[in-house]
Design a protein that fits this description.
Largest sheet of chain B: 2 strands, antiparallel
Largest interface: A-B, 63 and 69 residues
Number of helices of chain A: 15
Strand content of chain A: under 5%
Bound molecules: CIS-heme D hydroxychlorin gamma-spirolactone, protoporphyrin IX containing FE
Distance between the termini of chain A: 53 Å
Radius of gyration of chain B: 23 Å
Strand order of the largest sheet of chain B: 1-2
Structural class of chain A: mainly alpha
Strand content of chain B: 5-15%
Oligomer: heterodimer
Distance between the termini of chain B: 59 Å
Number of strands of chain B: 10
Number of helices of chain B: 15
């Protein structure tokens, strides 16, 4: 078993999965921050928005690069899969890009146009609203792949059947909503740690608890839908030992998150909430392995020639040597450390 | 509009948009490093003010560059899945390396922009240097990928498919050096001139302003060497094109017939039907000299290529003429500005004619960049990978491509307008800081 598992293609696929996970727990929270900006309310709405902007400002562009890394790994190491995904998910991906463009630029315009007038507020609104688009469609895309609805063209399908039907379906849409709620949870949890003011922290604790509850509801909803809509995924998730393990771990992490929030153990929640997100992604991967696009392409079958995979892994290792300390430095400078005076 | 045309237009619009922000993202960190360094050396608050003002603009430009670049990396697949499936394994390597350059760039930009109060001045300067270095490296990697499309290496072709691929050999393709060099210098020349132009414009209204004097001097320190070097680097590029892509060279020069001792044509309108380039100023033998090193070398004309495989000759020729004309203006202007700075660098505000010429040069570097890319990309048609893979075979099977084309065009148009007004509000219209308020800022 172990010889067949540790192949080059699997190693690169694992790296891609880790990059997706990093994108979800880091950039996901930035999107979640945008959602809370939209829902900021109460007497401290302004302070809530400021905390969000303050937390996202220095790091969102770096967090965003994980997505680029996923794309690059896909097209250099699994070119047929990249091509297949970009053809069949063209519409949701294009819409997602519109969200990325508007969200990023609106945020930059708002942060650096410091006049505090109506124009700046309008950018704030746009930033908040467009923060919803990308997570939703990202979830939709992942859900479509997971559902097994994609397949090689048969030649007799209409454009509607190829380009819209696979993702305009209950399960992918449920995944989209699930992603929204998860990212909102991540953001609220991180912000409880970032907040310096006690009442602000309580606000985000309340938001986090609401999001955590919503996570449970949407997760069960998605699972119910999966039974009918994505039977293969559903069976794998509930029968395959590796997937089951991650499935169980997700549940544990989710319970720990709620407990930690309830008892105000924010640093614990800051670990368990992203762990929960990772377990979901890894469970999805375990459920469909060795397929890359279930029902169409396998990891092995879509892999680029050995040289490319080898060089990419070497490049990744070298890149990580550069990246890890830089990232550590960035987060070290900008995350709030309890007990330390802040600048 | 047919789908292929829509896809090409969408790619062209996106890249033409992105390249402006990319060039700025490459060169602005260098300007900020210089200002920051002067501030730390001299303690003159004018330099701190400059560094801050520039970094606000750069933050906005960088964000727009990042999101438009993201669009392009997806578009490579959304529009050209055939190309990516064919070439991904060969040419993915520079893109992967570029990814890490993006990481360091984004990380240290965040630190530079938001970390001034949290880290030591030395670490702050070092982070600006890291942004500058990684910005240039990311451009080098992506242009290497583009150079490979012009002069593909690192594989063997068997039945139309690549075998024995060697990604390292692909990165070391013959066009890589000249093209990356030319692009990097272009970014410094264009951005340096544009910044010089904004300060020159203000100096014409306030000739004594120390702020704009300092800004102009730093911008010129970057723009002058770049603009002078650019024609030489362009000459190097042209030699590679002559060797690797004779059809592109013939289109650039409006050279319809193979000719010994071919003339250099300045201007002129190629008439594809008649097969002649009219109204050009012809300098005998000089094209042969420039392209192949001696006056009576044979320059292959378009007649060596089947008519169906010609790129749009008129566009390529005119774009090339525009680039060379603007490049010559910028190089001469740089010599003039260099002379004046050397003689009277402390009182640039008095040289009103030079200031006017600099103001006029503001957009020209970017125009040259657009023209140059038009030469490179349109001149390669009908190939997406020179001689190997046709653009028409690369396009996505999805119908209705005019919809995303229209959508993204509107989106970029909107972004362009907003960015421009934003910069205007921020940089140009912001009330001038006189020395006193600057002092107060520093004291805080
Ligand atoms: C500030 C911008 C700028 C300026 C002043 C010039 N160029 Fe340029 N040129 C570019 C910016 C540029 C570019 C946009 O950066 C290109 C597109 C692709 C590339 O690598 O560089 C380019 C491409 C390009 C190519 C085609 C390379 C290829 O297709 O592989 C040639 C032959 C030249 N240039 C030659 C020149 C000459 C002879 C110039 C003399 C004045 C000149 N350029 C000025
Ligand atoms: C590394 C950078 C680049 C890559 C990988 C790249 C790739 C491509 C690809 C795949 C196409 C479509 C196929 C084709 O029409 O040949 C294309 C077309 C085009 N690109 Fe680029 N490009 C790059 C840089 C640029 C830049 C910076 C510009 C800026 C103006 C540009 C302008 C165009 C134009 C005008 C076309 C349309 C050509 C035509 O269809 O006639 N490209 N490019
Ligand atoms: C000649 C062409 C190009 C040059 C010189 C160039 C250069 C740059 C530079 C310097 C940046 C840094 C961000 C900024 O300053 O705004 C950037 C951003 C970016 N570029 Fe390009 N680029 C080119 C074409 C492309 C192409 C073809 C792609 C698609 C694969 C691409 C993808 C990106 C992405 C994804 C980013 C965002 C990185 C981030 O999030 O920080 N670029 N580019």
């Amino acid at each position: 078993m172990s010889e067949t598992l540790w192949t080059l293609p699997n190693a690169v696929a694992l790296c891609a999965l880790l990059a997706i996970s990093a994108y979800a727990i880091l950039a996901g929270a930035d999107f979640g921050g945008g959602m809370w900006d939209l829902f900021a309310r109460g007497p401290r709405a302004r302070a809530q928005r400021e905390l969000i902007a303050h937390a996202i400002g220095p790091i969102w562009e770096a967090n965003h690069v994980w997505l680029i890394l996923v794309v690059v790994l896909l097209f250099s190491c699994f070119p047929p899969a990249f091509s297949a995904l970009m053809i069949s998910l063209n519409v949701p991906i294009s819409l997602m890009l519109v969200g990325i463009v508007l969200r990023g630029s609106a945020f930059a315009f708002r942060s650096h146009d410091t006049r505090g007038d109506a124009v700046q507020q309008r950018w704030g609104r746009l930033f908040a609203i467009t923060s919803l688009i990308t997570p939703l469609l990202l979830g939709v895309c992942v859900g479509t792949v997971a559902s097994g609805a994609l397949h090689a063209p048969t030649g007799s399908e209409t454009a509607w059947e190829i380009y819209f039907m696979p993702w305009l379906a209950p399960f992918p849409l449920a995944c989209g909503v699930f992603a929204l709620v998860l990212f909102a949870l991540l953001a609220a949890v991180y912000l409880t740690v970032e907040a310096e003011d006690e009442s602000l922290r309580e606000d985000f604790r309340r938001f986090a608890l609401q999001a955590a509850t919503a996570t449970f509801i949407t997760a069960f909803g998605a699972l119910l839908v999966a039974r009918g809509e994505a039977p293969r995924l559903h069976d794998a998730l509930t029968a395959r030992p590796s997937a089951l393990l991650f499935f169980a771990a997700t549940g544990v992490a989710a319970v720990v998150t709620i407990w930690a929030l309830w008892t105000r153990r924010y640093r614990l929640a800051r670990i368990s909430a992203p762990a929960q997100v990772c377990c979901i992604l890894w469970g999805w991967a375990a459920a469909q392995f060795p397929a890359l696009i279930p029902g169409w392409l396998s990891v092995e079958g879509a892999a680029a020639p050995t040289v490319t995979l080898q060089l990419t892994l070497i490049g990744l290792a070298g890149g990580m040597l550069l990246l890890a300390p830089s990232l550590w430095y960035l987060f070290h400078i900008f995350t709030h450390h309890e007990g330390e005076p802040t600048a | 509009m047919n789908d292929l045309l829509a896809a090409r237009s969408q790619m062209a619009i996106s890249l033409a948009f992105h390249i402006i922000f990319a060039a700025i993202g490459m060169a602005m960190p260098a300007l900020m490093v210089l200002a920051e360094w002067r501030w730390q050396r001299t303690g003159d608050p004018v330099y701190l003010d400059l560094a801050k003002r520039w970094s606000t603009g750069t933050a906005i430009m960088f964000a727009v560059g990042a999101v438009s670049g993201t669009v392009i990396s997806f578009e490579l697949g959304l529009l050209w899945p055939g190309f990516m499936q064919w070439a991904g394994a060969i040419i993915g390597m520079p893109f992967s390396l570029e990814g890490f350059a993006f990481f360091t760039e984004a990380i240290f930009l965040g630190i530079y922009l938001y970390g001034r109060e949290r880290i030591s001045p030395r670490a702050h300067l070092a982070s600006a240097i890291a942004v500058a270095v990684s910005g240039v490296s990311s451009a080098i990697f992506v242009v290497i990928a583009n150079a490979w499309m012009n002069s593909p290496t690192g594989f063997r072709l068997v039945n139309g498919l690549p075998v024995d691929i060697d990604p390292i050999a692909a990165m070391r393709n013959p066009g890589a050096f000249s093209q990356t060099l030319h692009m990097v210098i272009a970014a410094f020349a264009a951005t340096g001139m544009a910044i010089a132009a904004t300060h020159a414009w203000q100096l014409r209204r306030r000739p004594a302003s120390p702020f704009h004097q300092a800004g102009l001097r730093i911008a010129l320190a970057v723009a002058i060497p770049a603009a002078i070097l650019q024609p030489f680097s362009g000459d190097l590029s042209a030699r590679y094109v002559a060797k690797q892509q004779p059809t592109k060279l013939a289109a650039m020069e409006g050279q319809f017939h193979t000719e010994r001792g071919a003339p250099l044509r300045i201007g002129g309108i190629p008439d594809v039907e008649a097969g002649v380039t009219r109204h050009a100023i012809e300098i005998p033998g000089v094209l042969s000299l420039l392209a192949f090193g001696h006056r009576d070398a044979v320059v292959p004309g378009l007649d060596q290529t089947p008519r169906a495989d010609w790129p749009p000759v008129l566009i390529v020729h005119l774009a090339f003429q525009v680039m060379v004309a603007l490049g010559s203006y910028l190089a001469l202007l740089a010599l003039w500005a260099g002379w004046v700075t050397w003689r009277d660098g402390k009182r640039l505000g008095r040289h009103r004619l030079l200031l006017l010429a600099l103001v006029a040069a503001g957009p020209l570097g970017f125009l040259s960049i657009e023209a140059g890319w038009t030469v490179t990309e349109v001149g390669r048609q009908p190939w997406v990978i020179q001689g190997v893979f046709r653009t028409a075979d690369a396009v996505t099977p999805m119908p209705g491509l005019w919809v995303p084309f229209a959508g993204f065009t509107l989106l970029f148009l909107f972004l362009g307008v907003v960015t421009a007004t934003m910069l205007y509000r921020q940089i140009i219209r912001r009330p001038q800081s006189d020395p006193q308020t600057t002092e107060q800022q520093v004291a805080q």
